[in-house]
From TrEMBL:
Name this polypeptide is given: Membrane protein
Domain of life (superkingdom): Bacteria
One Pfam match: DUF2194
Matching SUPFAM superfamilies: Class I glutamine amidotransferase-like
InterPro entries: Class_I_gatase-like (IPR029062), DUF2194 (IPR018695)
Entries under Gene3D superfamilies matching the protein: 3.40.50.880
Species, as recorded: Sporolactobacillus putidus
Amino acid sequence: MKRTSKMMIPIMGVILFALITSVLYFRSDTFYRLFGYGQPVQKSSVHTLTSGERTSPGQSINLYYVSTNDLLGREVADNTQKAMDYAKIHYKVIKLEAIGSIKADPYNGIILSGENQALFPRTALENFVKGGGRLIAANRFYVTKDWFSLFGMTAVNGFTDVTGFHFNKTLFPGYPNIPASSRLFNHSSLAVKLNPDTTEPLVTAENLPVLWTNRFGRGKVLFWNTSALNDKTSRGLFDQALGKVFPAFVSGQLGAQTMYIDDFPAPAPDTTTDKITGYPITVRNFYQNVWWPAMKKIAADNHIKFTTVAIGIYQKIMGPPFPDLSNSDRNFYIYFGWENLSMGGELGIHGFNHQPLLLAGDPTDKTLGYSSWHNESDMVQSLVQLQKLVHQYFPENQINVYVPPSDMLNATGLDAISKAAPTVKTVASSYLGSTSEGSYVTEFGYDRQHPNIFLYPRVTSGYSLSVDDWFSLADAVANFGVVSHFVHPDDVLDPQRSGNQKWSQLSREYDGIITKVRTSYPQITSVTQSEATRMMKDYFKGDIITTYENHAIHIAFKGIPAQSSVIVHVEEGKKLDVGRFSFGRVIKLGSQLYDVELSKPQATLPIREG
């Protein structure tokens, strides 16, 4: 018996050694490199719908844009025309003298921008609207008494400055009322009184009407009593307000939601804190055992795909030799990368050392404490080293996305990306904000200097959103169906970014953001950044052809992504049938407001009474 026991000791030792070795191996970077953490989920394909060349009955909406050559007129024209371009709303820029030749018709509209009202042909505009045309004043301008009847005014007492935004009527789901304490909108407006018999106030600021419609003869006027339509956060409002003056109105929706996690995967400290959870825990353990399980559950519950962008190190190594990190045992790093890839997510890059690609002398936010690069060559070498690290651990993942640290970038940095990372197809920075401190604020579309790079900026950020943030999010959706949002894992560690809230509260608020987007905007689908870029390229290249009859709307997609849709407004007393049909699906979003998703390239929507 003793002999048997003695024999069991080495056997048990061998078994224990094998078990420990297996556990260590399965947790090692070698195992993940060879086998991965499950198989990455196949990304959904992006395909387009293209109708034939047959002519649909009815007539198109014809919008004519005319602007006076003053600063506000040019700014408002540039901004609102970009809004219509994004939404596939067709328009034609004309000269002032052409106004008199436009036929008065319910499907013809004239858009005015500029402050020099003396240049606008009042009589021609009155005749146009009186005969049934639609007139849109895209900014306030000084109005004399002879204009009062056309615009629905009874008195004007000069100009006044007001703030805030209060909706008397819903223009589009999700817009919050903006308090006067907010500086999101500063309106220079006419101190005006309206004719209650002909006007319908849609939006006010400090009880002053800033948007209304006015019935005049057989036509209708939409008047923006503000100077704020030169701001990006008004684009969706402008598009959707057009639906308030025409018998019916259609605009495009890309239908893409991108949800980013920046600085992820990245090195995580072993420091202990109790500020995150209320009890002591290392940051590393918090990420792995608390934060990431919660993020995964939120993603699974809401069908979210994360696009993450990796960091190599957080040390300020600004020149060669850059350390080779690919031989390190980075279990923590690759665990998160493989987990996200296995959920159908995407992995891009954020920077070797989280230092923006800026040179000395470039504008920068000095409070962030970043260092400058010496030259483009050093930038290139750092990006090459980061890609080597990512490819070592994730050999099947192609790097298609770059996000600038703190959304800061310059032309030299973009050159470096193009040279060092030729597979990068998308650069995602900021959509809103100022460029004065190095922020790379862009539109959506191809970069002019690097046509291989598509710019797809992010709109909002954080685990919780302020009222102003919610407005910006809603406006990007109202403009053309885009949600682009990002967070950082360490936002929860920063008192300012977290609002001094614990993770339990932040996770609920983050889940609330995603849930509200899903319920308010059923036309929006969560996709990776590469999928969103492919969708937007096709969307920009394609077209939406719409014709209108008294009792029907005819829609044709020309190379538009199948995931995209259209927003349809109908006038008071009218409605669309909702549900699933042979052409696709119609969803009611609000009063006289619908989203139409097509499964076939063409659709006819009957307009019903009611």
